[in-house]
Design a protein that fits this description.
The structure is a single chain. By secondary structure, the protein is of the alpha/beta class. It has three domains: about 240 residues, Glutamine Phosphoribosylpyrophosphate, subunit 1, domain 1, CATH 3.60.20.10; about 200 residues, Rossmann fold (3-Layer(aba) Sandwich), CATH 3.40.50; about 150 residues, Glucose-6-phosphate isomerase like protein, domain 1 (Rossmann fold, 3-Layer(aba) Sandwich). An eight-stranded antiparallel β-sheet has the order 3-2-4-1-10-9-11-15, with helices on one face. It has a seven-stranded antiparallel β-sheet with strand order 5-6-7-8-12-13-14, with helices on one face. A five-stranded parallel β-sheet has the order 19-18-20-21-22, with helices on both faces. β26, α18 and β27 form a beta-alpha-beta unit. α4 crosses α5, α7 packs parallel to α13 and α9 packs parallel to α13. The structure holds 6-O-phosphono-alpha-D-glucopyranose. 6-O-phosphono-alpha-D-glucopyranose (G6P) binds next to α9.
Length: about 600
Amino acid sequence: MCGIVGYIGKKNATPILMQGLRALEYRGYDSAGLYVAGKGVLKRAGKVDVLAAAIPKEFSGNAGIAHTRWATHGPPTEKNAHPHTDTSRTIWVVHNGIVENYAELREAMIQRGTTFESDTDTEVLAKLIGEEYGMGVVLEDAVTRALKKINGTYALAVMSEREPDKIVAARLGSPLLIGIANDAYFLASDATPILPHTRRVIYLDDGELSILSPNACMVRREFETLSKKIEVLEWDAETAKKQGHEHFMLKEIMEIPEVIKNTLRGRLDFNEGTSVLSGLQNVASRLANIQRIIITGCGSAYYAGLAGKNLIEEFSGVPVEVEIASELRYRRFTGDSKHSILLAVSQSGETADTLEAIRIAKRHGMLTLGIVNVVGSSIARETDAGVYNHAGPEISVASTKGFISQIIVLALIALMLGRQRSLQKAKGRGLARFLSELPEKVSEILGRKDMVAEVAKRYASMQNALCIGRKFQYPVAFEGALKLKEVAYLHAEGYGAGEMKHGPLALIESSVPTIALLPMDSVYEKTRSNVEEIRARGGKVIAVTTEGNEAAARLADDVLFVPTTHEAFLPVLTVIPLQLFTYYIAKERGLPIDKPRNLAKSVTVE
Ligand code: G6P
């Protein structure tokens, strides 16, 4: 989604802003632009490279703001790209979020004689700020006054030609953080543009406004100055690079063993057969009494939630509902809120629908918990308590290591809830051991990635596919199909294996292969029958099964093996061949693997 970068200091802002825009590319965007004090504005439709090529040599200054835009109001054209300006072309604004009442505001301004250059809600905001600024107030006061007139969400940065030594930034609902170096201040939508320069940051909270100058940074709410905590980021810039891999997606898959170790680190109590989650300590007694959990999320996070439901119900017996956040937020909340919790799963911690579902659940008096990867993100801060994934930055739009770490956290929560109830210590100890063995088992799968690449080559031209699974493998079928859709641009459907007879079998022919999640688990025989039904109708089958399943080679056209583990944890292993399979198909097809068309990493609009 849209990204903001800002710089004010002693150096030339232009290369810093451009480097920042490149660091934000992974979020998804379709145009870009920048404003540099004393030089003016440059915008281009398309990639940051197109903008870079248009920048003249002398385009330098000590402060500036820049933006990558992901179109919401109006097409991705140069005129709609940010920064936008006021009528007198004095102030320049970059903005993430949505001004909900922009149409009425725009209409009223047109009545007053204002003309607009773009279709965007941001230009309305720029012109509003300009009107206030025209009254002779300083920039921060003009911004404060203008923001009172809008409904919606924003992260914004504003500069004025009259006050070139100042950037005003404000946040409501869209993330924004300030980086603090010795001789400069940075501004960004997330940490990636700031990391090469400094690790010291301040997170702006909703309703806060910041005034940056070359040697000072002030944060205020309304007109009251606040004293904000400086936090130190754990991630370094190197972590966010590809480390020799052709794509972030493969790099992130290869990191999974390390990610699982990091997610588990210090959280398993082998003696008590339980998990120790410090982020949930304050709410542990409430959790011991809950009678219902609603898990919510979007995309892969939602499918991790489905896997979490199986784990939590299996180990603790607590009933779990899983609902897509974009549906949950519009549903009537029912049941006993006091004994229910909302568990929100989100890698970025910024997904708008998930955030809104949390706010609604809070209003209903529910305890809200987050499973979030990005430290300090909106969801991390708005939930009552939570568990961080510690998966490191995930740059590829399609989630891989993030998804796995979400399941691991859900398994830890399931273990804790189970041990608070009737799960016996010996069983808990066994589960803790199974969890701790997963990194090694994932490494075994990754060691055979070239075999997956070989199989993928054979299917690279397919147009349609089905993914089927049962019980613990049911969510994996959906996640596998989602990966094929988003990364390989292939029409794939996830299905419960038992549902094949109720429709999808009609699709089966030799050109529509089925990926069958067929580990030797408690429902192996049932799923095997479904596979035989597909084969009997001329369908090709790629089976993902556990080592030692000698029959698999006879049963399927191609077989991808994973090591064995407790059946409840098998999704962590079986999804990896599907991630790799998708990666190699997309590579064969020459697709933009890390940034699929039309998709964004962080979906901050509903
Ligand atoms: C986007 C991403 C997905 C992700 C989903 C939810 O669609 O492309 O990979 O699963 O958003 O994002 P979140 O950050 O909330 O996990």
